[in-house]
């Protein structure tokens, strides 16, 4: 995603009012603010589906833009967006269940994972948000790592040595250790461990 050109420091009441009027800058800011966690959530649900998470998000935000639904808080907006993604997945699942021969059990299992996927999505969004505190090169390395790329792949993608990848990660961890809560830092280390080989 491109950097937001909107001029809002964060979510606030004034922004919510402008979003409810569907003012372009406010809508753009909110879209980009929630994009990472919603994309992660959609990608988990549509993992075994031909539907692209990007297309799901585009459709849902377009629907929000067109239906002019008013939201009393950003928490309610976020809940609405998560439910919209979940409902889209359920509808897609119903249409493909015969062809793919899913069992009712596999459907129920995926339903049970929805809450854990929401938690993972929001956690990932917090981590991505903290990448803004890093020098640009460190941020690129950490973002690719959180996206699942292994160290040799990151080195190739950024045209740097693998030693530079390690050095940039170490520099990033030094900064983030003081910025993240202890729990979030442990989650970050766990994520990097999973993808770092």
> Tally the helices: what do you get?
10
Net shape? globular
Order of helices and strands: HHHHHHHHHH
Helix coverage percent of residues? over 70%
Computed CA radius of gyration, to the nearest angstrom: 19 Å
How many β-strand stretches?
A: 0
The chain-level mean pLDDT equals 80
Q: Name the beta content range.
A: under 5%
| CA distance, first residue to last residue | 27 Å
- Sequence stretches where pLDDT stays below 50 over 5 or more residues: 1-7
Q: Largest sheet at a glance?
A: none
Structural class: mainly alpha
Please give the structural blueprint.
Elements: H1 13-20, H2 24-45, H3 53-67, H4 74-100, H5 104-112, H6 114-130, H7 136-146, H8 151-158, H9 162-177, H10 182-195
Task: Give structural notes.
By secondary structure, the protein is mostly helical. The chain has 10 helices and no strands. Helix 7 packs across helix 9. The longest helix has 27 residues. The radius of gyration is 19 Å and the shape is globular. It starts with 12 loop residues before the first helix and ends with a helix.
Write a compact overview of the structure shown.
With 197 residues, the protein is mostly helical.
Properties at a glance:
197 residues, mainly alpha, 0% strand, globular
